[in-house]
Amino acid sequence: MEPSAAGGGGAASASRPPSFAAQTNALLRKNLIFQKRNRKATIRLIIVPIYLCLLLTILQRVINGVLDKPKFRCGCKCVDANGTGSCQNVCGIQYSTVDQAGSCPIPNPPEWPALLQLPRPEYRATQESSLYAGFPDASCRKSQSCSATIPFTGANETVSNIIMQNLFPSLPLSNLSDNASISSLLLGTDVPGTYASFIEPAFISDRPIYILRPQCKASDSVTVPITSGAINIHKETICIQGLPLWRNSSAIINEETFSGYRKGKTVEGINEISMAYDFQDSNEKRFSVLALYNSTYQNVSYIPMPFGLMRIPRSLNAVSNAYLQFLRGPGVKMLLAFTKEMPKQGTRLTFEFSSVIGPLFFEWVVALLFPVMLTYLVYEKQHKLRTMMKMHGLGDGPYWIIYYAYFLILSMVYLVLFVFFGSVIGLNFFKINDYSIQFVFFFSFMNLQIVLAFLTATFFSKVNTAQAIAYLYVFGSGLIAGSLIRNFIEGGKFPKHWITVLEIIPAFSLYRGLYELGQYAIRASEAGIHGMRWSDLNDHANGMRDVLIIVVLEWLVLLPVAYYLDHIASIGQRSSLLSLIKNLLKNPTWRRVSVNEVGNNAVHEEMVKQDIINERETVDQVLQQQSSGYAVVCDDLKKVYHGKDGNPDKFAVRGLSLALPYGECLGILGPNGAGKSSFISMMIGLTRPTSGNAFVRDFSIQTDMEKIYNSMGVCPQNDMLWEMLTGREHLQFYGRLKSLNGPALDHAVNESLRSVNLLHGGAPDKQVGKYSGGMKRRLSVAISLIGDAKVVYMDEPSTGLDPASRKNLWDAVKQAKQNRAIVLTTHSMEEAEVLCDRLCIMVDGSLQCIGTPKELIARYGGYYVLTVTTSPESEQEVESLARKLSPNARKVYHLSGTQKYELPKQQVRIGDVFMSVENFKRRTEVQAWGLADTTMEDVFVKVAKGAQSSEELS
C-alpha cells in the first residue's frame, strides 16, 4: 500500500500537519501558563544564590573579625624610652608570636641559620631491622637518640663514600658567635617550615635543634645563640648521629623509602629517611647529584607555590660543600651563611574565605541546577505527558527549542543574580575578576549542563531515581574534583596533559574554571593587583582557556547525540533507554518471532472462524488498492514480549488483521491479559510490532508515526494531565497542536467542554488538580476528540464515571464518530452495545470473533437463560423442570438455591416456559424466577471460556 496524503473521509485542513511555528507557539503558551502558576517555586530557586552569597558574607565577616583580634595583629610591648622611665608602646616582629609576625612591617628581615628538615625521632627508627639493613631499631625512640639515616648510591662507590664522610663536620663546638660559625655546623630540625621565613619556627618552638655529627659525645649538646637585629635567641641543641648508608642502586633507596612512608599517625615499623643522594656518575672532574627529600614535611599553602622546599637549599649546600672538600681538602668551604626574607610593609592578616572554598562551594551552586532540569524532564516522561504531546502532533524540534530556551533563561538569571549580588556584597571572587570572562565561562557551561540534562533524561523513567542519582553526582563529583584537581595542580607532579584529559568530565572542567577564578582573586586581594583578564588566558599556567575549549567542544559533540537519543527514546520503545541498553546486552541478537515458531509455548492451532476469515480477506483486498479509503488497516499484526530469567516468550498479539472505515466505532473486548492494551500501544506508537504492520490513513506505523500523530487523538487508560493547568488550557494547548487558532480554537474548546459536560459550574477554569476522577476522565475524552482527529483511540473512557456522566460521554462519542474512526476498549458490555458499530473479542492475543453486536448475539446467543431461586431442598426438582423444558438444557450457575440454565431457543417456546413454571410454583415454593434473552455479556463469557478451553486442550 502506498501512503496517501489525505486518506478517506478527512478534511484537507485536518490532514495538514501543524507548522513548526504553530507547535512552538502552542508549547510556549502552555509553558508560560505553567510557569506562571509555578512562579513561587521558580522564584525560590532563583534566589538561592542570594542566600548563599549572604551566608558567605556573614562567614567572611566572622573570619575577618577573628583575624582582626590582637592575637593576629603585630605584637607590641611597652618599653623604656631613652632610659627616662616612661613607657612607650613599640610594635615589631621581635615582640610578636608566629601568628602575629605575618602582619608586622619588616624593613630589615632577620637572618636565620639554614636548617635541614629531619623526621621526628619516633619516625627515624624501625622494628623491622632485618628488612632494612643498617637502619636504627626502635630502642632509640624513648631517648630520642635515633640516628638520621641518609641512604646514598652512585656509580663510583669510593667517591661517593668520601663525599658522605665530608658531609658531617666534626669541628669543635666553640666560638659560635655569628652566622658564619653557626653555618659551619650541619643543623637540622623536625619542625615543619612555613611559607615565609620572617620567623624560623624551629627557633621559637619547644622542640630542640639537632646537630648532625659523625659521632656524638656528651659535650656535643650546646646552646646556640641567634642574634639578628633586635632578636636574641639562645637555643639548646642536641647531637644526633648522621648515619650514611650505602645502597647498590637508587631503586633500592626508592623501595626502602616507599616502604617506610608514614601512613597517618602510625609509627610502627617506620624508617623515614632524612635525605638521600644519588651521585650518579660523579668523579674528580664531574659532580652530578640527585638529592631526595621527605615530602611528608612539605608545607603546602593554599597558594600553589612550593614553599615547603625552602629547607632543601641546606641539603644541597651540605653535599656540594662535601664534594668541594673532596676536591680541595677540608680547609675549603662553601657555606650557606643564612636565609633571609625580602622586606615587607605592615599588612593586615586576611583570609579570602569565598575564594578559598569557592571552587567547591560554587561548583555545587552551579551544578544544583542539573537535578532541577533533570527532574522537570523525567517528570513529564514518567507521567507520560511527553508521550501525550507527541501523540497529538508535537515534534521533537519545538519541544527542544522551548525547553532548552527555558532552561537557559532560568540558568542565566540564576547565575547573573549570583554574580551580581556576590559583587554587590563584596565577594572578591566575583568583583575582582573580569565579568566578561565569568559570563563566557558560565554561559558555556550552562549550555553544556542543559545538554547533559537532556542526555541523562533518556536513561531514566522515574523521578525519584533520577533525583537521587543526580544529587549524588553533583555532590560526589564536586568532592572528587576538589580533591583530585586541586592536589594535581598544586602538587606539581601530575602531568598537565592528563589534567586536561580529566577536565573532559564536566564536573572537573567546572571545578578547574572556578579554581582559576579563585586563585586570581586570592592573589589580587593579597598583592593589590587586578584579577583574571583575557590576556591572562595566554599564561600556560592558567587553565581557563583549556576549560573553555573543552566545554564548547563537548557541547557541540553532545548536542546532536542527546537530540538523537531523545528522538529514539520518544518513538518506538518509549521506556527508559537504560532498559533498552540492558536488553541489548542480554539479547545482543534481535530475532523476528513469528507465529510459525513451534515449541512448548508456541501458538496453538485453532479452527479459524468464518467472520475472521472474511475480515482477513477484506484486509487483503484493501492492501491491493492505491488509496484504501479506510482509516485503520491492520495486516497480520503480532507482538511478542521476550521472556526474562528463563521464562518463555509471551505472545501478546497473534496475527491480528482488521479493517476499520471512517464513521465506525470498533469495540475491542477481552479479559485482562487478552492483548487489548498491547494492540493499542502498537497503534499509538508506544511499542513496535514484532512483525506485521498497520496503516493509519494509509501511513505505516512502522515508518510514518510522525505523520500519523498529526491526525490522531488518544484517550489513555490513565489520565495524563498537568495538575496546574485548567481544563480550558489543556484543550487550548492540544487544539493549537491540531492547527486550530483564533475564533475557531475558542469555538472548538467550548464545544468540547460542552460535549463532556464541563462547560458550567466553573469547571473550565478550575485547575485540573482540583478535578474529581470523573471530571479528569471526561477531560481526557475531550482532548482526544478536539481538532477533528480522524482516528481516535479510547482505552476504557468511562471508567469511574457516574451514570449521568457516562450517558453524556456516550452522546459525545456517538456524535464524534460521524466523520472519524474510533477504536474503543471497554469492560462495559452496555457501553460496547451503545457506542460500537462492530465488536471484536480477543482472548490470549488472538481474535476470536468480529461483527455487529446483533450478529454476535445471534451467533453465540441462541438460547434463553432461565433463573430460578428456591430452597436448597428443591434444587433437584428445579433441574427436573429444566430438563422437561429442554433435554439439552445446560446448568451455567448454581449458588445457595439459585440456578441458571441455558435453554436452546429452537427447543422451547416462551409460552411453554411460563406455563411450566406456573405449574411448578403450585407444587414447590419458588422465591424468584426469570427468563431472559442472551446478552452481550453472556456472549463475551461464552466466547472467552470457549477460547480458554480450546487453549488448554491444545
Automatic annotation (TrEMBL):
Q: Is Membrane set as a keyword in this record? A: yes
Q: Which GO terms describe its cellular component?
A: membrane
Keyword presence, Membrane: yes
According to the lineage, what is the superkingdom?
Answer: Eukaryota
TM spans (from-to): 43-63, 356-379, 400-427, 439-461, 468-485, 497-515, 547-565
Q: Name one GO molecular function term.
A: ABC-type transporter activity
Q: Which InterPro entries match?
A: AAA+_ATPase, ABC_transporter-like_ATP-bd, ABC_transporter-like_CS, ABCA, P-loop_NTPase
Subcellular location(s): the record lists: Membrane
**Which PANTHER family does the annotation name?**
ATP-BINDING CASSETTE TRANSPORTER SUBFAMILY A ABCA, OS06G0589300 PROTEIN
- Which family is it part of? Belongs to the ABC transporter superfamily. ABCA family. CPR flippase (TC 3.A.1.211) subfamily.
State what protein this is by name: ABC transporter domain-containing protein
Gene field: LOC102705445
